[in-house]
């Protein structure tokens, strides 16, 4: 029996519509697992969902309201605010606290970095980075789909800072994260060059022969199978040699092809933790919140990842 905590994310987003659409699956899984929606005090709710003050031993699907929640707030779907950003951030922190105390895995529903920052949380870059800070260890974002697995070596940083971030990248910890992940078993790895055409032997930049070469050497010393640098503009084309895992130098280099090819079934998995954290591969979608058209495929894919009985083949 697994324990799964779901951080509610921004309550003015599509998240509660996703939960309502996936309610049958959540209740069914609750027959054999403990599933808790960690939420704040507000008017967005799920009908017939029992509320608890702390986790219990038995299976079921419940909501947990964190301590010291204060006065309940009234939110309108599609109308984010600093208050909804604060609720989303507090839900994340409370989910982490519950996980540390009771163990288990985490699903984080989407929040808005903009509104979390407007709520006064300085330096917030995203879930992956927040988890690294909370658990005091390097974390890595792996986008996992039905056929593709992609790790961006830099995540939520401006494009102008990518090279600086790559220079201080922790390749040793990445090796450890890959080797200990239950979702990766002896993967073949292809790494994408930073520059157009992978630098063309130094004619269009030297990062491939300096920064990336050093990192790849670390991976090979760890007995990992690595090939590259690959030209990023053709690595995902039909007919290109497939790899179990792709390393992208920056966020959009890896996530644009991933989202195009995997669609709504992609899942964001955080590597480097002693438990599994997953998130749907989409954002808050404030523009469609409340219109009844939110697709729960991503949330259902997260649930399937956490309760599958054997490691997904790679």
Automatic annotation (TrEMBL):
Organism: Leptospira jelokensis
Classification via Pfam families: PdxA
InterPro entries attached to this UniProt entry: PdxA_fam (IPR005255)
Keyword RNA-binding in annotation: no
Name the UniProt record assigns to this protein: 4-hydroxythreonine-4-phosphate dehydrogenase
Record keywords, A-Z: Metal-binding, NAD, Oxidoreductase
Annotated GO MF terms: metal ion binding; NAD binding; oxidoreductase activity
Taxonomy, superkingdom: Bacteria
């Amino acid at each position: 029996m697994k324990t799964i905590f779901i951080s509610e994310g921004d309550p003015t987003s599509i998240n509660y519509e996703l939960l309502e659409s996936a309610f049958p699956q959540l209740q069914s899984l609750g027959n054999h697992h403990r599933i808790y929606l960690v939420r704040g005090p507000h008017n967005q709710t799920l009908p017939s969902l029992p509320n608890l003050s702390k986790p219990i031993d038995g299976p079921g699907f419940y909501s947990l309201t964190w301590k010291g929640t204060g006065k309940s707030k009234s939110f309108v779907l599609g109308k984010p605010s600093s208050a909804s950003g604060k609720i989303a951030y507090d839900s994340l922190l409370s989910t982490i606290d519950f996980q540390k105390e009771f163990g288990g895995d985490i699903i984080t529903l989407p929040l808005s970095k903009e509104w979390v920052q407007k709520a006064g949380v300085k330096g917030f870059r995203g879930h992956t980075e927040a988890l690294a800070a909370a658990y005091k260890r390097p974390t890595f974002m792996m986008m996992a789909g039905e056929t593709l697995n992609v790790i961006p070596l830099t995540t939520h940083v401006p494009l102008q800072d990518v090279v600086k971030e790559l220079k201080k990248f922790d390749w040793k910890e990445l090796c450890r994260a890959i080797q200990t992940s239950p979702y990766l078993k002896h993967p073949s790895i292809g790494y994408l060059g930073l520059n157009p055409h992978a630098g063309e032997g130094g004619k269009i930049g030297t990062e491939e022969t300096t920064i990336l070469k050093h990192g790849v050497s670390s991976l090979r010393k760890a007995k990992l199978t690595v090939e590259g640098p690959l030209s990023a503009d053709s690595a995902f084309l039909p007919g290109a040699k497939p790899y179990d895992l792709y390393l992208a130098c920056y966020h959009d280099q890896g996530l644009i092809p991933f989202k195009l090819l995997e669609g709504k079934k992609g899942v964001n998995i955080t590597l480097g933790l002693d438990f599994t954290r997953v998130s749907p591969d989409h954002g808050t979608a404030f523009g469609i919140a409340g219109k009844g058209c939110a697709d729960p495929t991503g949330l259902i894919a997260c649930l399937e990842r956490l309760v599958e009985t054997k490691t997904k083949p790679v």
